[in-house]
Amino acid sequence: MHPNFDLSDCYTIQGKLALPYTYFAGSVGSIFLTTLRDRRKIMGIKCHTCGKVFVPPRQTCERCLEDIRDQWVELGDTGTLENFTVVRYADRHLPRRPPFVLGLIRLDGADTPLLHLVAGVVVDRVAEGLRVRAVFAAQPENTILGIDHFQPL
Amino acid sequence: MGYRKKNRHVGIVGIGTTKFSSHREEVNQPEMIHEAVRQALDDAGLAIDDIDCVLHGNMELFEMVHQPDLWHTLGSGALGRDALRLTTGGTTGGTLVGAADNLVASGMYDTVMAIGFEKLQEGHTTGGITNMADPLWARKLQSGALTDQAACKLIAEFGEERARRAAMTYRIIMDQHACKNPNSHRAFGLSWDQIDDLMKTSPPLIGDLRLIHMCSQSDGACAIIFAAEKKAKDITNWPVWIRDHITVHREETLNLCNNYYPTATTHRFAAAQLYARNGIADPLAYFDVFEMYDPSAWWGVDWLRDFFLLEGDAHLRLVEERQIAIDGRMPINPSGGVLAANPIGATAMVRVAEAAKQIRGNAGPHQIPKPVRHALASSFGGTMWTVLFMLEKELNWQGV
After folding, report:
1. Cα-Cα-Cα-Cα dihedral sign, residues B316, B248, B55, B71
2. Least CA distance to B61: which residue of chain A?
3. What are the residue ranges spanned by the domains of chain A?
4. Residues of B whose CB is below 8 A from A19
C-alpha cells in the first residue's frame, strides 16, 4: 500500500459466524469412553496384522486398512511422556489455568501417544521420558477427562 | 475452450456407496468413509497398495472440521500415498471424478481412488454456507440453498396449474425410484392419488417451493476407483469408460453481486459444449439414462430442458407423460436422485456411481429394464456450477 494512502474513508465490516457442530465418537470411541467412566480402564485396539496397539482406539488400522474394531486390549495406567508443551495463556476452552502441561503420553503396551494433561510437576522441569500414571476423575465424566490428568510415578 | 482429447482412456473399476441416512451415530467420519472405501476396493478386487493416489472431498465447513482429509486417513487409505483434497461445494463429488479422470488420463497415475462424503448430522450447513456471499453486498440478503427461482420461472412460462402439477409428478416419480433403491435416505411410498393434496398441504419453504419438493441433508460416503485403459481391463471385466467431462461455472453471480442474471444457464452451456465436441446431435436419443443432480423437484423439471437442449414445453411433456420413469423413454435418476439422499460432498459422485452401475447392469432393484450403453451424469453446486459426464459401456463410441 502506498505510505500516504488515506484510510479514513475505507469501509470495513466486522464479521462473526456461529459454527455449531456435534462430534460423534462412533461405537468404538464410545466404548473407550464408557469403559473409562464405568470401569476406570484404558482400552486400546490391536491390529493383528501389523501388531500395533492404538490408544485411543480406532475401527480401522490405517496402515493395513483392516477392520480391527473387535480386537480390544486392556492397558495399564502407566506410561512415558513422549513429548509435551507448556500452555502459558488463558482461554475459555482450555481445561486448566496456565501455566499447565499438555503431554503426549505413550501408555505401556501402546504404539500411539495419547494427548493429555500432565500435573503434579513443576512446569519448567518437565522432560521427555518422564514416567507417568493416570489419575482418574473423582466424578464420572463422558469425555477424555474421565482421566483427570497424568502425574509422575 | 482449452479442450484437448485425452492421452488415454479412463475406466471406472470399483464403486462403493454407504447406506444414506439422516443419522449415523454409530460411526465417526473416518469410519463412515471406510465403509465406502472397503466396498470400492472389494468391488474392484484391489488392495489399498494398488491405489496410486487418493482424492478426498466434502463441503468446506459443513462438519466444521479443518482439513478433514488428514483425520480421515484413519479410514481413507491415504497413508503413505499421494493425496489431494478438493472442495467445490455441491459439485465436489463431480470435481473429484473430473480430477481423477484428468489425473489418470494425463499419465500421472494409473489408479486413483476418489472419496466424497458428508456427515451433515454433525455440522451446521447454514453456518458454513453463509460465509460464501460477499459480506458487504450480499451476506445480509443471502437465503442459503433454498430458492423458488425455478418455480417462478416455470409458473411464469406455463401457468400455476401445469407447472405445479409437473413438479409434483416429477417428485412422485423420484419417490417411486427411491423406494426401489436400498441406499435411499428418504423413500416415502407416495402414490398418484396424493398429488393434489401434496400440492396444497406440503409445508411451504419459499414461494412455491414446498418441503416435499426439496432434497434432504444426509450422512453418507461414496468411493470410486479409476484406472487407465490397460489396467482397467486387467482389473475388471466390466469397466465403465468416462468418455468426456466438462466443468462450467459462474460463481460471480452471488459473490460480486453483478446486476444481471445469466440467461443461458451453466447446465445448458455445458451440455451444448460437451455434445458438440462429441458429435451428439440428439442427446435424448443417444443417452439411455441420466443421473441428474436435482436438489429440488422444481429444478429437476426445469433442468431437463437445459441438459437435453430442449425447446418449448418438451421437458414438461417428458415429465407429464412419465417418460422419465425407470421404464420410460429417458429414465431420470432410477436411484431416486438427490431427492432420495443428499450427502452433499458425495452427492455428485453418487450420480456418476449410479450411472456407472446402470451401465454395468448391477444397479440392484432399481436397474433399468433395458440395456444401458450410454449414460449422462450431472453435478450442481454453488450458485451456478455444472460438471457433466458422459459414460460409456464400450470404447468404440460414436455420435448420433
Report:
1. negative
2. A19
3. 26-152
4. 61, 64, 124, 127-128
Q: What angle do CA B350, B307, B279 make, to 5 degrees?
A: 105
- Chain A residue numbers touching B121 (CB-CB < 8 A): 22, 24
Residue B23: inside a domain: yes
Three-state DSSP state, A85? strand
Domain span at B32: 10-126+217-225
Cβ-proximal residues to A8 (8 Å cutoff; 6+ apart), any chain:
none
Residue B67: inside a domain, yes or no?
Answer: yes
Q: How many domains does chain B have?
A: 1
What is the nearest CA distance from A48 to chain B, expressed in angstroms? Answer: 16
Residues with Cβ < 8 Å from B206, sequence gap 6 or more? B143, B146, B147, B148
Q: Which residues of chain A have a CB within 8 Å of the CB of B81?
A: none
Q: What is the ipTM of this complex?
A: 0.84
State whether B27 and A58 contact (CB < 8 Å). Answer: no
Task: Give the CATH number, domain containing residue B109.
Answer: 3.40.47.10
Residue B275 domain-assigned (yes or no)? no
Contact B63 A21 (CB under 8 A): yes
Looking at the complex, does the CB of residue B131 fall below 8 Å from at least one CB of chain A?
yes
Residue B61 lies inside a defined structural domain of this protein: yes
pTM passes above 0.90: yes
Pairing of strands B53-57, B10-17: unpaired
Q: How far apart are CA B26 and CA B35, in angstroms?
A: 12
Q: Minimal CA–CA distance to B292: which of B275, B321, B278, B271?
A: B271
Q: Where are the beta strands (DSSP E) in B250-370?
A: 289-291
Instruction: Answer whether B127 sits within 8 Å of A19, measured CB to CB.
Output: yes
CA distance linking residue B237 with residue A42, whole number of Å: 48
Tally A–B CB contacts below 8 A. Answer: 75
pLDDT by residue, tens only, chain B of 400 residues: 566 788 999 999 999 999 999 999 999 999 999 999 999 999 999 999 999 999 999 998 888 888 999 999 999 999 999 999 999 989 999 999 999 999 999 999 999 999 999 999 888 887 777 777 777 777 776 666 788 888 999 999 999 999 999 999 999 999 999 999 999 999 999 999 999 999 999 999 999 999 999 999 999 999 999 999 999 999 999 999 999 999 998 766 555 444 455 556 889 999 999 999 999 999 999 999 999 999 999 999 999 999 999 999 999 999 999 999 999 999 999 999 999 999 999 999 999 999 999 999 999 999 999 999 999 999 998 777 899 999 999 999 987 7
What is the rounded CA–CA span in Å between residue A101 and residue A127?
11
Kindly report the nearest CA distance between residue A55 and chain B, in angstroms.
13
Identify residue B282 by its one-letter amino acid code. D
Does B127 contact A at CB distance below 8 Å? Answer: yes
From chain A, the residues in CB contact with B34 under 8 A are: 59-60, 65, 67
Of B17, B296, B58, B39, nearest to B166 by C-alpha is: B296
Would you give the DSSP letter of residue B330? S
Interchain contact, B31 vs A26, CB within 8 Å = yes
Integer Cα distance of B194 and B83 in angstroms? 48
